[in-house]
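Bug: token stream looks shifted between consecutive jobs. Job 1:
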Amino acid sequence: MQNNTKRNNNSGVSDTELNSVDPEESQNNFFERLPLEVTLRIFSWLDVQSLCRASMTCWSWNDKIRVDDSLWKPHCLAVRAVCKKEIDDDLKSGYSWRDTLLRNYKKSKVKLEWLSGRYSNICSPINLPEKIMYPMDAETWGEILEAELKRCKNHKDIIALRV
């Protein structure tokens, strides 16, 4: 115990100075003290939902996340797999990666469900889950119809093979 006291006294840092840092303030400012590159690297590992939640944590995080378009690009490219035309058109129009993602994210989720056949067995518009529907243009509905017709043809081919 005395050895520790001697080391502290010999180090030139008094106990008062060591205890002067408020632990709560230190915790709140930890992220602020990181270099911007490290902060952005941490944010880059987040999925879309976590990135949005992190941006609501504090003004500082919101500013960093909102301004850095590179954080949104990979998520936008993932949505592009479903909404290629929409994403490409938005980028050509000068929208940022973040804005492009915001404009197309929900549509891509609904479109993917349609294209994957989630609603193939629904016989009436009343049975469609309204809360997750999203307005889509005629071209998108054309893609969905083509996928449904292809699915029907494949289904008929399977039935014909069984008979």
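Job 2, same session, no restart:
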Amino acid sequence: MDLFVSIFTATIIAATPLILAALGELIVEKSGVLNLGIEGMMLIGAAFGVWAHFAGLPMFLAVVIAVLAGMASSLLFGVLALTFMTNQYAAGLALAIFGAGVSAFIGRGFGSTPVEAIQPIDIPGLSNIPVIGEMFFHYDPLVYFSFVMFGAVSWFLYQTKAGLTLRAIGESPDSAHAIGFHVIRIRYLAVMFGGGMAGLGGAYLSLVYTPLWVENMTAGRGWIALALVVFSAWRPKRVVLGAWLFGGMTILQLQGQAMGLAIPSEVLSSLPYLATIIVLVLISQNRQAMALDFPVSLAQPFRPKG
């Protein structure tokens, strides 16, 4: 039971940065914009979070700065893709490369100096319940925040007028513009939200999960988050389930290495990525269901007329 609880809690923690980044990208893509730069924005958030921490700022402000850094980097993509209407694929890839370079520059002086990680919080009366308390009520604040954001994003997309407007813009920006919606403005806000969430996911890696700065520490999680959004058919619930799957496979491969299984470590390290992609591809085989949530104008440039 102790091993099960340990794997369960470690899975939830490992999935948190993916949930944060993927939910942000989900909003971006629902607006009809494709930002491939999640990896770069997560790295920038991770680096600036550590920088703020070592600058002596409180941990809360370090997290806020990481979010703002992610938003600022997303604005670079927004200017290129939304204002100058450059190819969104190229702009996103450029942002991923740019983020890797900027984060390496920001973090060059940190080495592997440990960070005083954000600690779990105990919920009075609940954290002490045997087994259940450890499994559900003994996490750091950002894990709980990821649950809140899942509910908030689901509610926003499907229960609010603003969410309906966002989805309408993703379906037909010309029609949305014709009835008076500011398509570019709304897409900018969506892109900034996605950047902030990616920066927060990066900050979680450097301030909680590791916790220290390592160059390219995202290790492809930005690309996995991007894949989660697409293969989950742009549905928040499937995004979270996919993130938990990846987190679970990550923890299981670490357990396998610790147990000394006679399998090359490189093979074990690749299993989370391989298993996540295979399962999500199988989930997405229902093309009719995917078509219901696919943003028709995804990655297509829009120039307001009139």
